[in-house]
Structure formats: structure tokens, C-alpha cells
Amino acid sequence: MPLMVLPILGQVSVSESLVAIITICVVYLLMRLNRIKIPDGLQKLPGPKPFPIIGNVLELGNNPHLSLTEMTKTYGPVFQIQIGMRPVVVLSGNDVIRQALLKQGEEFAGRPDMHSSKFISDGKSLAFSTDQVGVWRARRKLALSALRTFSTVQGKSGEYACALEEHISNEGLYLIQRLHNVMKSDGSFDPFRHIVVSVANVICGICFGRRHSHDDDELVRLVNMSDEFGKIVGSGNPSDFIPFLRVLPSTTMKKFIDINKRFGKFMQKLVSEHYETFDKNNIRDITDSLINHCEDRKLDENSNLQVSDEKIVGIVNDLFGAGFDTISTALSWSVVYLVAYPEMQVRLQKELNEKIGTDRTPRLSDRTELPLLEAFILEIFRHSSFLPFTIPHCTSRDTSLNGYFIPKDTCVFVNQWQVNHDSELWKDPYSFNPDRFLSADGTELNKADAEMVLVFGLGKRRCIGESIGRAEVFLFLAILLQRLSFSGIPGETLDLTPEYGLTMKHKRCLLRVTPQPGFEPQTTLS
Ligand code: HEM
Q1: Ligand 1 mean position, distance from CA 464 (Å)
Q2: Class (C level, CATH) for 36-515
Q3: Which of 136, 312, 456, 458 to probe ligand 1 with, by most ligand atoms within 8 A of CB?
Q4: Does residue 463 have a known ligand-binding role?
Q5: Would you state the pLDDT for residue 496?
Q6: Is 139 exposed, middle or buried (0-12, 13-18, 19+ CB in 10 A)?
Q7: Fewest CB within 10 A of the end CB: N or C in the chain?
Q8: What counts of helices (H) and strands (E) characterise the chain?
Q9: How many Å from the N-terminal Cα to the C-terminal Cα in the chain?
Q10: Pairing outcome for strands 404-406 and 393-394
């Protein structure tokens, strides 16, 4: 006889459920016997009382960023919840998060051992795996240096300041043409569907020295499924915390494993092609530079060979994955906000028209000239907080915070959403108001406020693609806004409610574009 356990789990037999429940009870009792001793002078973490077996899962609900923000009002900025049988420390508030990630950075820099992480890059991801500190540090250094080199290197045409600017400009112009074409054939378009391919092409250019067509089925399907990925690795996914959920059928988990397999296959093909055509004297892109690093290391008798070739070349998976999902989510939100706040779109276009005009395409060096656009982007980051939590952290040794004891290997959630909506930091935090970042005369950005927006994490695990991310969102938006006006479908209301995940997406919707004066489409490209 089938038994429904939770809606997300699907159907399970009574015998399977009984085995699972008995196992959980035994583990639960063992855990109670193994209670942690609090060192003298420190206190036990506050937090809601957990239910047996499921902990506080029900209180987390479908929007953990909102429920955990609400809990700070009762328990303060450092508290503990229990997801399933696993204790999780939740950090909120600017001061506490800075204390943990900057001042006590070493102690909070680990990653927890999560079930879902085992499927990402076969458990060898730089961002998600539980690599030992030395291995993670070496990989992170390599990744940072490769990113820096291949985004700042001279572009192919010499027309642009760097390869990054060249890739973004080309893809921005392709995207505009593409949107005109889709408008002509369908009368509207799904913004995420098209933006994500353009953004993926920028990181593909840097990592693999190539771009894909917007009609490349495999790439389009893969990058358009990133929301399924984010739903599983977002903080608070029950199957990462409640072991028995792993053995039960779950369509979301099945999809997650499938996406990772397909992603791995897609990346492996590109990496294999690089190995076949590798030439030490012509390092074309990040993949070549990682292969070269492995080759050099083999010749160096003094080198430390702890990090396998697979883990080095596999860095490219993290760069590609993180590089398309985050930026396309930011851009897609930006476009939706432009439609929701049309008067802001007009002001941004006026700024572009006055500072850049119509004779040339915007460049990265125009950033200081376009303070309203910069303020708009900061407000998108803050208001949408589309990365509500960082990737979960983990304590690397016994530590304390705000007088509370936190044992080694405790999973830690960093609530970025709470900081970005804290009424102690922001006036009217729930209203969308880019002007909050501008000086009274609107000519300058307020740098102190800009730095308070928390979206790239902080400290040792801070995003390594931050400068690329900021540059890319800026330049894509500047190019799009110079040439297009975005609008909704008359009579249809836009729903700005985010869908929870590692990166929160807006609901899929249909929008329209019209060309800005002087930028009417002339030819139809495929
Ligand atoms: C708007 C764009 C982006 C946002 C908002 C963003 C945000 C983040 C956040 C919140 C984290 C986790 C920090 C933590 O765990 O404390 C992260 C990590 C990471 N990001 Fe980004 N990111 C963006 C773009 C990029 C890009 C373009 C790349 C690479 C090309 C990238 C590569 C990474 C990597 C590799 C990590 C893992 C770092 C580690 O675990 O040591 N990100 N990012």
C-alpha cells in the first residue's frame, strides 16, 4: 500500500517508510546521548526548538531567506536551527557576518559535506566540495589567476580594451539582433531564455575560446535548466540534511543528477578537444592554461603533486557554471525591473544618451560616467538579493561568535538577503529606489552604501568572479538600454516574486522590445 510522506517525496511503501523511520529514531537517540559540551564562558546558541527527526524543516518553509530573517527578530543575529538531524548556524546582520567571514575568516571558510555536492563535477567542484584547505587554496589561486589573465588580455580585433569587453560587446549586439528577430516572428520573448545563452557565450569565449549559436539545442537546454540546479543546492534543501530522503524517489533530485551528468559531458567534450589540439606555445584560453599548468608541474621535480590533473582542469567547470548562471540571473532580473519601473528605464536611457550618445557602443571605461546605471545595478543586487544566501559554509575548528559556542564541522548559512533588507542599514528597505546610492545632485555614487550591499559573499570564500560579474552586468545593460526599450505585454501584470534557490529567479514571463531612435534594425541575422 502506498503511503504519502511529504508531497515532494512521491510515493513510498509502508515497509520502506518503517525502516527509514526506525533508522532515524536510532540516530536521533544516539545524537541526544552525544550532546555537545559548551566550554566555560560561552553560551549555547539560541534558536527554535526542533521537532524530532525533521528538526525545523517546517518552519523553514519554501522561502528560507524570509523565514530565517523573521527568526532573527526572536533569536538575534547568531542562532541555530536544526534541519533534519543536522544543526545549522544562521548568521545575519552586517556586523556579525563581517566578524565571522572577515575577522574569523579561517574558522568559517570550510564547506559542509552535502549529499548534493557529490553530484557536482563528480564531487570535485572548487566551490562546493570539501577539499582540504591547502588543495582548495591552490585551486582557487589558479582559478583567480586564469580568470584575471584571460579577461584582461588584448581582444582579437584590437578595437576593445580587453577580451572581456570584446566578448560582451559582441554578444550584446548579437542579443539585440536576436531579440529583434524573435519580436518579428513571435511578437514577444522570454528574457531569461535568450540572455542566458549570450552570457554563457561570454564565459565560453574566455574558458574555451569559442561561442555557440543561439540555436545550439544542447547548450540552450543545458543553460535554461540552471533553475533546477539552484533549487537543490540552495541553502535548506531537505535532502542534504535528512539522510532518508536520499533513498526515496524525488523527481527534483533525478533532474539534478541528470543536469550534472549532461553538464559534465558537455564540458568534457570541450576539454578533450583542447587536449587534442593543445600547443604549449599557443595558450588560447583558460582551459589551455590549466592544461599547461598540469604539464609544467610534471616537469617540475619540486612541485607539490597533491592536486590531481582532473581537479585542476575541472576548475573550468566551476568557472563556466558560476559564470553563466549568476550573471544571466542578474541581467534577467534587471530587464524585468526595467519593465516594472518604466520611469527608471527612461532616466537610464537619458543618462546614456547624454553621456555616450548614439555614435558609439558603451565601453567598460564608461562606468564612472554612468552613476545612475551603477546605482540601478546596485539596487537590483540589493532589492532582489537573488543570491539570498552564500553557498553554505562550515566551521573548520571549534569557535565562538557573539559569545556563543560553535563546534567544528557545523554547517553555517550566511543570510545575505537579511543584510540587504535590514531596516537598521537601509531606509525603506522594501522599496526599489536606485537613488539611495547617489549623492543629492545625482552625479556620484555613495561608495560606503555600495559596499554594504551583500551579494558576492565576503572574506576567504568571496566570489572570485566579482569584478567580471559587475563589469558584465554593467556593459550588457548599457548596450541593451542604448538600443532597446523593454515593455510588458499590455494587460498582463509582471510577478516579481522570486522563486527560491541558490540563485533566485523571477517567474518566466514574456516581454517586448522596441528599438531606440537611431537604432532601428536593418538586417535580419540568424
Ligand atoms: C553577478 C554575478 C555573481 C554573483 C552575484 C556571484 C556571487 C557569488 C557568491 C555569493 C558566492 C559564494 C560566496 C561564499 O560562499 O561565501 C560565489 C562563489 C563563487 N563564484 Fe561567484 N558570483 C557571480 C559571478 C561569478 C563569475 C562570473 C564567476 C566565474 C567566472 C564566479 C565564480 C565563483 C566561484 C568559483 C565561487 C566559489 C569560490 C570558493 O568557494 O572559493 N562567480 N559567487
Answers
A1: 6
A2: mainly alpha
A3: 456
A4: yes
A5: 94
A6: buried
A7: N
A8: 19, 10
A9: 55
A10: unpaired
Task: Enter the pTM of the model.
Answer: 0.91
Which amino acid does the sequence have at 90? V
Ligand 1: residue of 416, 463, 470 to mutate (most ligand atoms within 8 A of CB) is 463
Rounded distance, CA 222 to CA 176, Å?
22
Give the 3-state DSSP-derived string for 328-343, with helices as H, strands as E and coil as C.
Answer: HHHHHHHHHHHHHCHH
**Each residue of 294-332: pLDDT tens digit?**
888 766 655 665 688 888 888 999 999 998 999 999 999
Q: Per residue in 460-491, pLDDT tens?
A: 999 999 999 999 999 999 999 999 999 999 99
State the distance from the centre of ligand 1 to the C-alpha of 469, rounded, in angstroms.
9
Residues at CB less than 6 angstroms from ligand 1: 126-127, 140, 143, 147, 203, 318-319, 322-323, 326-327, 330, 387, 390-391, 455-457, 461, 463-465, 468-469, 473
CA dist 27 and 416 (Å) reads 32
Structural domain spans, the chain: 1-35, 36-515
Residue type, 263: F
Q: What pLDDT, on a 0 to 100 scale, did the predictor assign at position 311? A: 87
Collect all residues with Cβ–Cβ distance below 8 Å to 221 and sequence separation of at least 6: none
Phi, psi of 490 (to 5 degrees): -55, 135
Report which ligand 1 atom has the smallest distance to the Cα of 473. Answer: 1
